[in-house]
Amino acid sequence: MNDSVYLNGEFIPLAEARIPVMDRGFLFGDSVYEVIPAYGGRLFRLPQHLHRLEQSLHAIHMQNPMSRQNWETILGALAAQHPGTDQSIYLQVTRGVAGARDHAIPAGLEPTIFAMSSPLPAPDPGIPARGIAAITLDDIRWRLCNIKATTLLPNVLLRQEAGERGALEAILIRDGLAVEGAASNLFIVDDGQLITPPKGEHLLPGITRDLVLELAAEAEIPYCEANITAERLDEADEIWLTSSTREIMPVTHLDDRPINNGRPGPLWRRMNELFQAYKEELRTKG
Ligand code: PDD
């Protein structure tokens, strides 16, 4: 089963994985997903990812098609394909294949379940010296951004615009508030305090976000969950963006303006050390 993917009950080579064009995931983006890192074959915060998957399914009126134990078996088998390496496990559940294209949801569909593992590149080693550039953009997404839906066209366009303007990520502004990145959560440091927007419909409840808050609590770093206005973002001492695949990224240029003199800040260094230690512990001890 080396390098195989999981599709509807079978482990098969990626090149042989096929879904029918009448799948509602293909026609309507009627599906949800998760991205779970595996460090040295060990899945990062699996219960939390499976909990978020359940919340996403519930929000789109679908049942979880598998028990937690089955998910663990399948995802664990994918992660075990390359035990010594870091992998990113992608899983997707679509509403399934319908007889006709119709927005209304037909009864009795069998969900399509897909999962695969890909190499997870280590973060760019230049980041601790340079950080990354980000730009602010108007949040053009829909209102239910807490659902991890595959309907990602706005995120794709926002990320593309950031790339075209020489930035790695877009920070999204809705009604004057900075909510999150196009594929990441947002933190700022203001006067020694770590601040991230509270969970709600306008942002994804990130697994990395929650871990950063847990690590802050353990290390007695002051933090709070509060709205961040666009003006407060502009004046922040540090800005970070977090995600499963890109860890904690220090933003050192926002809209071409340097943050913290264009260097990652001291609190980022401390949090990144805590995060790397957490990862290493998972990798070595499970
Ligand atoms: N995206 N916000 C958005 C809009 C995201 O797409 C992501 C992650 C996050 C961070 O969540 P987490 O810490 O659980 O990865 C926040 C994944 C990695 C993706 O779409 O590939």
Overview of the molecule:
This protein is 29% helix and 29% strand. With 286 residues, the protein is an alpha+beta fold. The protein has 2 domains: 4-119, 2-Layer Sandwich (D-amino Acid Aminotransferase, Chain A, domain 1), CATH 3.30.470.10; 127-284, D-amino Acid Aminotransferase, Chain A, domain 2 (Alpha-Beta Barrel). It has a 6-stranded antiparallel β-sheet with strand order 2-1-6-5-3-4. The protein is globular and about 55 Å long. The mean pLDDT is 97. It binds N-(5'-phosphopyridoxyl)-D-alanine. Residues 35, 180, 183-185, 204, 206-209, 242-245 line the site of N-(5'-phosphopyridoxyl)-D-alanine.
Structure in a nutshell:
The chain is of the alpha+beta class. Helices cover 29% and strands 29% of the residues.
Structural class: alpha+beta
Q: What string, H for helix and E for strand, traces the elements in order?
A: EEHEEHHEEHEHEEEEHEHEEEH
Small ligands present: N-(5'-phosphopyridoxyl)-D-alanine
Question: What is the rounded Rg?
Answer: 19 Å
What's the mean pLDDT score? 97
CATH homologous superfamily descriptor of the largest domain: D-amino Acid Aminotransferase, subunit A, domain 2
CATH overall fold name of the largest domain: D-amino Acid Aminotransferase, Chain A, domain 2
Q: Name the assembly state.
A: single chain
Number of domains: 2
> Considering DSSP H and I runs of 4 or more, what fraction of the residues is helical?
25-40%
CATH architecture of the largest domain: Alpha-Beta Barrel
- CATH level 1 name of the largest domain: Alpha Beta
Q: DSSP strand (E) fraction?
A: 25-35%
Unreliable parts: none
Describe the main β-sheet briefly: 6 strands, antiparallel
